[in-house]
Design a protein that fits this description.
heterotrimer; A mainly alpha; B mainly alpha; C mainly alpha; A: mainly alpha; Four Helix Bundle (Hemerythrin (Met), subunit A); about 70% helix; B: mainly alpha; 3-stranded antiparallel β-sheet
Amino acid sequence: MPEIRVAARLLPVNGTGRLSTGWWGMLCLVATEGILFAYLIFSHGYLGAQAVGDWPPGGAPALALALPNTFLLLGSSIVLEIGLRRYETARAGSPLPALLVTAAMGGAFVLVQLKEWSNKPFSFDSNAYACSYFTLTGFHLAHVLAGLFALLVLAVWSWQGRLRRRPSLPLALGRIYWHFVDIVWLAVFTTIYLVPQQP
Amino acid sequence: MATIARNRLPDQEREKLRATWETAPGVYGWFATVDHKQIGIRYLVTSIVFLLIGGVEALVMRVQLAQPGMKLLAPEQYDQLFSLHGVTMIFLYALPVLSGFSNYLWPLMLGSRDMAFPRVNALSYWLYLLSGVFLYVGVPLGQAPNGGWFNYVPYTSREYDPGINIDIYALGLIFLGISTAVGSANFVVTLLRTRAPGMSINRMPILVWGTVTASAANLLAVPSVSLACLMLWLDRSFGAHFFEVSGHGQPLLWQHLFWAFGHPWVYALVLPAMGIVSDALPVFCRRPLVGYTAVALATVTTMVIGFGVWVHHMFATGLPAMAISFFSAASIIIAIPSAIAVFSWLATIWTGQPVFRTPFLFFAGFVILFVIGGVSGFMTASAALDWQLTDTYFVVAHLHYVLLGINLFPVVGGIYYWFPKMTGRMMGERLGRWSFWTMFIGFNIAFFPMHVVGLEGMPRRVYTYPADLGLGGWNLLISVGAFLFAAGILLFLVNLVLSLSRGAPAGPNPWDAPTLEWATSSPPPPHNFDIIPIVASRHPLWEDRLEEVEERSQLDRGYLLDVGRETIGTTPMDAEPNVILRMPGDSLLPLGLALCVTLLFLGLLAHAWVIAGLGLAGALGVLVAWLAPAPPVEAQKARIYA
Amino acid sequence: MSSRDAPETAVSHPSPQRERVSSPRLLLALILAPTAWLGQLIASYSLSSVACDPSGSSVDMEVVPGLWTLLLLINLASLAAGTVGIWLAWAAWRRSRREKAGGRHTLLDVGEGRTRFMAVSALIVSGIFLVAIAAEAAALLILQRCAPGTWL
């Protein structure tokens, strides 16, 4: 006769990383958002390919602000990665500093990007290039803001001591999202800034 | 039959599981439930309500078109009706009804206790319901979407269509897209992580293959139309120039983005329905599906090719013939996987011992309609022929054969088939046959002549036509067929309602079917299975009879997991248990988030930015509460019954 | 460990020969041909559109010299990739064909043995997509021009 007993093996409950369902859910989110950017870049390229006259109107955009800003955003990913690895391997006592420095760098990126916007000689409704430019970079900016929001929420949770478990699932999810936002920027940066440059 | 020894688990234990998983009673439970079975039934009921609304819209149009020069509808009313009809059927009925089946059936078929993200499941339903209502808010004002379901610019730019009609369409589709995306992600993760131990990917029912393929495709396709709609809304609201030629925009960009979504989407509307047939038809042929592996792969292949055929909707837009020919080739090749599936069904019927019950009739009827619709699709894949046929009633005939034939017939057959599981009662057989024959004959009278009037040159989307076109007789016949078809649907609904209270008791497995959903009681308890099954083959309940495999699935011993709401998490490919998943219970968060999103979209529609901002802020707040980290739980030894 | 201690051991593993074909290899066999086809389609479409458009007056592809040759090379590369996909799938099938009882007909009908199921899936998928790649290439070879005649 069967009876109620316990299995021999210990199984994690909910788990983190690939064991958890949240990790896979985050990958689905990243996949659908990634393809959204692919469609945005396709649209930008399509409008450019069909354009009559200069594309971009008035020549290639300057790299003076955008290039350093790119390094700033990439640097923020590196800071986050190092900080979280140190935390996971118990070399750091708290993820809080890494989260805050990353958020500060992300915030600086947003400010530089807004400055870049205000420097543009055209406005959103000037022409197809302008609306595509602001929409593509604006979508990315919105994702950076969402990532910043996530980082700050994680910082609060960490401060409250709710992320004690190592590795922690919320931290892992925030980390995937922030890296995603940075990698997408490379595609956006290439589309908007690098492709139109004349050698 | 595998051993289903009922009540082996002590009653007291079953009650404990039931109490753990049961939705709270009363109004709170109604709004807070995360039970996939309740959500699945809600999806089914809501989508059938939309089917009826869309159907009534179609009937009104058929009265208008019954004779030349009728004056029942003004042109503007007709525009709104055919647009609403298309939007309702394609977006609010066809996919959600399949989500209903899958939501209800997946955990039962996979031997699990719920979907991977039960609260996301509830969220996806509430978003669907509210976005459906949103798409209809313009109706009382006489300002419903009026640009057809694919809503081409420049007809729909502000200059030519200044009302809020198109804004409702654009924002409504983005809104619905959120529901589709979160629902699809839930299916994908559920598939990868919550199958019963032993159910490796080669032991999944075809419905599961169909739905996961459609879900993965939706994740990749829906952003395209959401983006197109956003661009259109920006064009209309803020003077952007994405589609406006005056500002160097490109009207064809709309068509590219729309169809890059639209074609994968129509496959998403049919693949799970084909899965319904692949799983249920063999039960009525008393044998397994012929060529399971080939059919599973045909499903995936159809979807992948479906991403490379979107330009065949744009053959007549003046693209270079060279460019068109690539897409024509792909559109012809896509017939190969479809043919694989058709021949598998035919071989299953041919080599089986068919039992002519109502579901069988619907599935066999589906095969016929699929072949007719497939052939007319194959014809229009040829660019030269498409130039003759595009924008005529021939295309209307084609799309109704494929969408009604491949979606609605399997859906109705599927309801006849799984109604006993959902309610514990059989549906009436006599009325069932009447409903099938009325629907089938009405359908063909209504839609087959459309091929003819299309070939005779009748354009689609016209509110009336002159008498000297000589098509009055055909059109009258079409309208009569449409009403006959509607009568068939009505008979089906009457049967449904009568059977709810008067149907014969079903028992757990009235059709003597092979898959796991039939191993539990009808209707299933809130926790689905007392013990999570251990699966040894694709037909756990037919193993003794088929002798396909030497081993036997275990349904009465295995993981019990009775400490709180728990189910087993398994590896993506081979379904080896590797984690205990603790599931959330009743929650108002999904409804709260859906309401905040609704507020956001209403604000955007009215250009009331404060309201939109409130909605967004509320949504973020709910999300933070939703994702708040739970206190960590140590690893455990799972409770088992062995 | 008996099934009284670990219930999943009540049935044998669904893919006993999973070690014989590595997962990345199986995955590559599955996606190589479809990816090649999608790449071929998108490259062919966008390149031929560039060559044939911009003002809508060109009939020959020689507006951009060498473009047709480039398209041909892309098509040949896709055919090659599809063939490699088939070969990988075939090799995986050879290694895992005895994973469970029954030969290829049983596998097509019943699907037992997860490794060989994926191998034969890759074979079917690669086969269909190789046909698709060939059909796309045929379009290129038959037309050779942006449009028959001067209807543009």
